[in-house]
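Hi P.,

Sorry for the delay on this. The queue was packed all week, but I finally got your sequence through. Input first:
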Amino acid sequence: MTLQTLYALAAGPLALLAISAFVLGCVYRIVTAFRQTASDRMVLYYFHPRYALRSILRWLTPYATVNMRRHPVMTAVTFVFHFGMVLMPFFIFGHMILVYEAFGLSWPTLPDVLVEALAWAVLLALCFFAGRRILLPEVRYLTTLSDFLILLLIALPFLTGIWAYRGWWGAEWATVFHILSGEVLLVAIPFTRLGHMVSFFMTRGYMGSEFGGIRHARDW
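Then the structure:
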């Protein structure tokens, strides 16, 4: 298979397949969570939109909770990582062009220099998380091989993206591997612990409702 053929396959049918798997996987995860919740009437009975929204917004705000302020370095790394992984890919010019060609949609993008800086920041954050799992006994005790595999899975799209952007040796192949690794990551999100990107809003909403509406206490 030639490079051009592999690129066309990765940017065409495989991309559509990965996006479909991601969307359907997220829907499945949400539906499954609601079905499990339906068996426990008290969860729905205690749910309170005001306290749920308050809790979600609080935990999405840097240093808003007591635990975040107790671990300032971990908090900074975590927010930079999540911003770079979740939000930044939507504002890359190359990504937007692909969306425009497929759906005719466009929006403002970030400067390339900022995108590259955020990509490096994500890689450094992943090294921080890996080192934390190796060096801290309380974290190492709970760490398994899958934790490192997930970190590697996240790292590959960013590493190959930088490689392709920089035009280093084999940049054409790096571009293809960037697309493929991004698609693998996209498919893995709903079916691994990365699915907390979806379940976060449900679990945090419930916890906020319980603490605010039942215990009359703050959950931060």
